[in-house]
Structure formats: C-alpha cells, structure tokens
Amino acid sequence: MYEISLHPVPDAVRKQALIDNDAYQRLYQQSVEQPELFWSEQATSFLTWFQPWEQLHRSDLKKGEAEWFKGGKLNVAYNCIDRHLEQRGEQVAIIWEGDNPSESAQITYRKLHSHVTRLANVLKSRGVKKGDRVCIYMPMIPEAAYAMLACARIGAVHSVVFGGFSPDALRDRILDADCRTVITADEGVRGGKYVPLKQNVDKALKDCPNVSSVLVVQRTEGKIDWQEGRDLWYHEALHGVSEDCPPEWMDAEDPLFILYTSGSTGKPKGVLHTTGGYLLGAAMTHKYVFDYKDGEIFWCTADVGWVTGHSYIVYGPLANAATTLMFEGVPNYPDASRFWQVIDKHQVNIFYTAPTAIRALMREGEAPVKRTSRSSLRLLGSVGEPINPEAWEWYYNVVGDCRCPIVDTWWQTETGSILITPLPGATALKPGSATRPFFGVQPVLLDEKGKEIEGAGSGVLAIKASWPSQIRSVYGDHKRMIDTYFSAYPGYYFTGDGARRDEDGYYWITGRVDDVINVSGHRIGTAEVESALVLHDAVAEAAVVGYPHDLKGQGIYAFVTPMKGLEPTEELKKELLALVSKEIGSFAKPELIQWAPGLPKTRSGKIMRRILRKIACNELENLGDTSTLADPSVVQNLIDKRLNQ
Ligand code: ATP
Ligand code: MG
Predict the structure, then answer these.
(1) What is the 231 CA–ligand 1 centroid distance (Å)?
(2) Of residues 259, 145, 127, 222, the one with CA closest to residue 181
(3) Which ligand minimizes its atom distance to the CA of 356?
(4) Could you tell me the Gene Ontology terms of the biological process aspect for this record (predicted)?
(5) Superfamily of domain 11-54+70-453
(6) Mean pLDDT along residues 348-359
(7) What is the 482 CA–ligand 2 centroid distance (Å)?
(8) Which of 8, 255, 290, 389: CA 20 to 30 A from 103?
(9) Which are the contacts of 375, defined by CB distance < 8 A and separation ≥ 6?
(10) What does the DSSP 8-state code read for residue 482?
(11) pLDDT number for residue 520
C-alpha cells in the first residue's frame, strides 16, 4: 500500500512563521465563535477604509444572500497602490518576466501608480463610468494588471477573458456582460508563438455592436487591422495624460469584477465579486497561507484570466505591498527548466502553481530541475485540482529539495479566495490533502439526504456560514446562482466537490460530486483511482469516469497517458489493474483502460471529465460546450480509439 507520509511542521519553519498551530487554533475558534470581533479586526488591519461600515455582516444562505461591511467605503486601487507610496514608492511591485528569457522588467509602486491613474483617466475620457463593464483580453503583461486596477480605481467592473480563448468564446463573454470597452494587445507571445489577440477581438466584435472603444497595447508591433474611431493605441492614449485621478469611493458591496468559470462542468457562469469582502479575503489568505513577509518575491504562475491570477498575482499581493512576479510564457519554453531558471533569476521565495504543470514537468524527469539552484525558495503551493500524492512527493523532494512545505490550497472562482489549506507554520502536511479550513470557513460533509456527517467520513463538501469573499451573483442571472449553489442543500453553500474527512479532521477533495462513481455500491472518487494509476512509473497522467454497467451499476473507464516515449502494452494494463487492487481494492479496478496521447483539458489545465464521460458512455452527438478546451483535437483521437463495452 502507498503509505501517506506525514510531514510535521519543521521547527525552523514554525519559529519564523506568522501563525503557528496554537495561533491557528485560537484564531480559528475566534473566527467562528466571535465573527464580529474577528472580522472587524482583520478588515481594519488589512484594509484602509475611507469610511467605516454600518453593518459588519448579514447573510442568509437559504436565499443565497450575503453582505459584508455594507456602507463601508474603500477603493481597491487605493488599497493596492496609493497607500503604499509614502513608505514604498521605490519598492518593486511587479517583476515581469517575458516569454523570451532575455526580456524582463521591474515596475515600482510609484510607476504602477502612474500607469494606473493615467489609464483610469483615459477610460474616463472614453466615457467609462462607475458600474460599466470593461472586458480585458490580454497577454500576461503588466498592462493587464494596470487595466484591472484602472477599472477598480474608477469603479468600473472588469471582466478578464483569458487570452487563449477563441473569438467566439470572447464574443459570448462580451455580450453576456454587455461590455462597451475592450482592452487588448496587438498580439500575445507564448512559448515563442504569436497569439493574434487583436484579430480575435475584431472577429468577436462583428457581433458586438455596443463596443465603442478598443484600447490596444503594442506588444509585438505585428500587423493588425484598425477601425478608426473605435480603436486606439494604448501608448498614444496615455501620452501626456494627467496622473491626477482621485479614487472612486466604492461601497464594500459594489461590484469589483465578473469572472467566467473555466467551464469544466458546464456552460461558463459570470461569477460576480464585490469590493470589500473580496479584497479582504485575497489579502488575508495571501499573507497567512503563504506566510508572506515584507521584501519576499512571490510568484503565482496562473494566468490573470483565472481567479487564481486575480487573487494571487494582482489583488492579494498588491494589497499587502508585496513584490509579485508575472510570467508571460509557458513552463516548457525554451525548455523544461524554465520555471526553475526564473526562480533563480529573480530569487523567488514563494512559488504557487497547478498540479497539471507539476505532472507535465515530472514527465521530463529530474535533470531540468536539478540543473538549477532554487535555493531562494522557501514555500511551494498547489491549486486547481487534487494533487495526487506522487506528484506531491516529486514537488516536495525534487523541486523543494525536501526543504519547502507545500500548501495545497482548495478554493473556487466562486469562493474568491482560498478556503481549505495548510498554514505552513501551523499544519502538519499529508500529501494529497488540502488539510484544514482557513479562518472563518466552516466546511461540512453532507450525506445523500443532506444531513451533516460527523467525524471521519465522505460526502458532499458544503460550507455552512458565509465568508467575506463569497460569490454575490451570477451576472445577469441571479437565479442561476441560487439554483447552482444554494438550492440543493438549503442553508449551505454547495461546492459541487466531494470530499473525505479523516480522523485528524483533514479534508481530502475526491473530485466533483458528479465524478463519484458507484461500483456495486462502493462510492469511489475519481481522484482516488487516478492517484493509484499515476503511481506507476510508466504513467504520466490518468482520468477515470463512470459508465453504465449491467451488473455493477457503474463501471470504471480509465483514460491513461503513458510517459513520454513509452509504448503501452497489455502487460502494463495488467500491472495497472494490480496496482489499483493493491492501493484501493479490487472493486475499484477499471473495467476498461484506453491509452490516451492527450486528455481534454480546460485552458487552465483541468481535465474535463464531463467530455470523457460522454465518450465512455458513447454519447458522442452530445459532447456539450467544448469551446473552452485547450486542444479540441485530442477529443477526436479519444473517440476514434474508444473501447467498446
Ligand atoms: P466550472 O465551475 O465552470 O466547472 P471550475 O470549477 O473548473 O469550472 P474553478 O473555479 O477554477 O473552475 O475551479 C474550482 C475547482 O477546482 C474546485 O471546485 C475543485 O474541484 C478544483 N480544485 C481547486 N483547487 C483544488 C485543490 N487544491 N484540491 C482539489 N481540487 C481543487
Ligand atoms: Mg467550479
């Protein structure tokens, strides 16, 4: 059996950490027993308010209602920039690392202020007002952060659309939020290739008559089409513009942004977040989860098009006056050593990435990692999917040289900030477990009848009390928010994830609830079977789904990607079945194993089991929305090689 190793908090880590286990216990208890006291202290210490709130908190989860710091006035850009200027104007706010390793830049807080205020004035001059929606469709360049902060400064609501999305996906999102302004670049650069962003915008806008301004950052100077009157160059528009732009006083409950979920389970939803609670959640978790201390270099590898980029590249770090690194490129360009080279080049202290990236780099072996020093690193993080214990150990041993704790952070676009996570100075780690709730978070496991499960057990993960950065609405479709998150289990926020709680009260995310497979009465989480399969040296990645089975109710269908350069054999199949039997039990053995050169993934790297389930069940006419797939061609291959049941 694969033994889950326990990693106690090293003394050296505990001693210098902001929060040790005693502090965690005390603060957690306070946060749930005296929430008024706890949250008013946190909101005062983390944020600067122009005017205090009238009511700290009011919520009714039965109706999906939540309000935090209502009546309080603040501005997110002011909190992320202006208030730092006096002490830290010359400190670097953003380190930018280009796709090409010879390109990088450093932007101080003072420079950031100059960019953001001028851009804010340009937006105003184009008629953008408080409450208007602005679409940001950008590569990973500092202007993406300037654009978000400029919107926040004037009270416009941004909707960042990942730069890898197609013109159709972009059009749908612009129309859904009725954006009138788009901020983009001529082209993006990723892995040495050019991405035709402006061209995509032009295509999308054919069906968006309300868009009156397109601001274009010159990134590559590639040739683009131009529509006079509508299009304007970013650098020309900002030239000579005043830096005098007083921040709008926003109510804590005024909208800050809309962000469409990545769509791994269905049609994307425009998740709406508000100002005060969101910023507090992002800032607090950035500081405590990553144990962030002044002067450290923090690198989150997500794209700003995802919530992880919003909360942990831009808002959390900047609210805390941190130095945040923004990377334009990809992990394997120019070669598979790039992440680790960037860490050495900029002396990164805290590194936060996704299991999909870790597994891809694991496939390349240890050499690309070991070529680099990584001695500046002291903490690693993971987010986006359950991290299988094998990838966890590799991350810990090979990347972190057994020195750096890993925070496996569970959260969602809808939660705004991290909800279940270790704190490095407080929490003994178990590979594959997101461990314990963050302050104020009250997770529960519910059984099929919606009853809370006590002690160790498995069920549906729900949250039983409001937290400041929770979703407030689905833009334009409030009913959809209620239906999706607050109807199935009245009085709870329903996460859509399944989880197990062990004897120590640690949470293990087992995958989406609709990914739980019921084989002859055994409820099996996809993550458990996948973790067992990837333990095999020959397996790079695996995804399992259920399909109808005459005898067992459901059978397990596994899609398995072998290691690079390896020819899969029948022998390997037998070994995999034996491995699953040994790790979980023979009831969890996949009936069918299909070799998959690639798996369908969202643009943010999550496996889309929804599509695999359709393939396994032979429901090919009805694959659903595939517009958010990173590489639609992998689907055809899987269909062609589909195994008959
Ligand atoms: P959609 O809701 O449109 O299907 P999505 O849920 O993939 O898209 P996100 O909000 O980015 O979009 O992802 C949140 C989900 O990612 C969680 O519900 C969970 O399934 C998974 N997840 C995130 N972090 C972790 C983690 N540390 N461990 C396990 N699962 C995680
Ligand atoms: Mg989701």
Answers:
(1) 36
(2) 127
(3) 1
(4) acetyl-CoA biosynthetic process from acetate
(5) ANL, N-terminal domain (3.40.50.12780)
(6) 95
(7) 14
(8) 290
(9) none
(10) I
(11) 82
What is the pLDDT confidence band of residue 553, given thresholds at 50, 70 and 90? confident
Q: Give yes or no for residue 434 CB within 6 A of ligand 1.
A: yes
Both tokens assigned to 410: 């569970």
* Beta carbon of 408 within 6 Å of any ligand 1 atom: yes
Q: Which residue has the tokens 């908190």?
A: 57
- Residue 263 near ligand 1, beta carbon < 6 Å: yes
Mean predicted lDDT score pLDDT of the chain:
95
pLDDT (tens digit per residue) in 305-331: 999 999 999 999 999 999 999 999 999
Cα of 408 to ligand 2 centre, how many Å? 17
Half-sphere exposure of 383 (CA within 13 A, CB side): 29
Give yes or no for residue 530 CB within 6 A of ligand 1.
Answer: no
User: Where do you find CATH 3.30.300.30 in the chain?
Assistant: 520-641
Residue 320 and residue 307: Cα distance in Å, rounded?
A: 18
Of 160, 258, 260, 262, the one to substitute when testing ligand 1's pocket (max ligand atoms within 8 A of C-beta) is: 262
Kindly give the distance from the C-alpha atom of residue 303 to the centroid of ligand 1, in angstroms, as a whole number: 15
pLDDT category at 628 given cuts 50, 70, 90 is confident
Whether 388 lines ligand 1, by a CB cut-off of 6 Å, is no
> Is the predicted pLDDT of residue 518 greater than 70, yes or no?
yes
Any atom of ligand 1 within 6 Å of the Cβ of 422: no
**What's the CA-to-centroid distance between 352 and ligand 2, angstroms?**
20
**Rounded distance, CA 158 to CA 170, Å?**
14
- Closest ligand 1 atom to 262 CA: 8
pLDDT category, 45, cuts 50, 70, 90? Answer: very high
Q: Is 261 in the pocket of ligand 1 (CB under 6 A)?
A: yes
- pLDDT tens digits for 151-188? 999 999 999 999 988 898 899 999 999 999 999 999 99
Residues 181/215, Cβ–Cβ less than 8 Å: yes
Average pLDDT over residues 326-351: 97
User: By the 8 A CB rule, do 528 and 626 touch?
Assistant: no
Rounded Cα distance between 259 and 252, Å, is 18
Q: What would the pLDDT profile of 418-428 be if each residue is shown by its tens digit?
A: 999 999 999 99
pLDDT of residue 515: 77
In the reported structure, the alpha carbon of residue 497 is separated from the centroid of ligand 1 by a whole-number distance in angstroms of: 8
pLDDT band at 1 (very low <50, low <70, confident <90, very high): low
497 annotated as a binding-site residue: yes
| Ligand 2 center from residue 242 Cα (angstroms) | 41
- CATH code for the domain defined by 520-641: 3.30.300.30
Closest CA to 392 of 362, 349, 372: 362
| Cβ of residue 606 lying under 6 Å from some atom of ligand 1 | yes
Cβ–ligand 1 distance for 497 under 6 Å, the answer yes
- 409 CB under 6 A from ligand 1? yes
Q: ipTM of this predicted complex?
A: 0.97
Q: Which long-range contacts (CB under 8 A, 24 or more apart) does 108-114 make?
A: 109/81, 109/84, 109/85, 109/321, 110/85, 112/81, 112/145, 112/146, 112/149, 112/318, 113/81, 113/82, 113/85, 113/89, 113/243, 114/243
Whether the predicted pLDDT of 267 surpasses 80:
no
Q: Answer yes or no: is 536 a known binding residue.
A: yes
pLDDT of residue 2: 65
Is 335 labeled as ligand-binding? no
Residue with tokens 């950008």: 138
User: Is 308 marked as binding a ligand?
Assistant: yes
Residue ranges, CATH 3.40.50.12780, the chain: 11-54+70-453
Verify whether ligand 1 is closer than 6 Å to residue 383 (CB atom). Answer: yes
